[in-house]
Amino acid sequence: MFARRGVAEKLIGQAGLRMVAQDDLRILTSQVKVGLxxxxxxxxxxxLESPFIDGSHVLMDVHNITxxxxxxxxxxxxxxxxxxxxxxxxxxxxxxxxENQVRFLLEVAWVSAGPSxxxxxxxxxxxxxxxxxxxx
Length: 136
Known about the structure:
Blueprint: E1 13-21, E2 32-39, E3 43-48, E4 52-53, E5 56-57, E6 68-73, E7 86-98, E8 101-110, H1 117-128
Antiparallel strand pairs: 1-2, 1-6, 2-3, 3-8, 4-5, 6-7, 7-8
């Protein structure tokens, strides 16, 4: 889907990410803040500080019997609001090593289980906007 050789770490925004069960979209983890590298109609790329959410690996572990999808939400969604987010299948997860720094690249491809039509377009638009500057 994304044919990047080297990953630039210039973020275009931030999002919330949580893992949900594939069968009924039951929330499996709390939300973690991730950096947004790219987003489009087919999928998105994120940069994570750690490969773990709630002590569980972001990718489905071979020992885990619960198939997972990633739910992506705007950060201003509310702490535990049960709002719909874009649902994606994890298609790539890479460890990126830089000088004195390790980051993790997560790529997802959107699936039809999430919102569609106008709601999907609205969420994509909200996620692609740069974050608002905090006024002091």
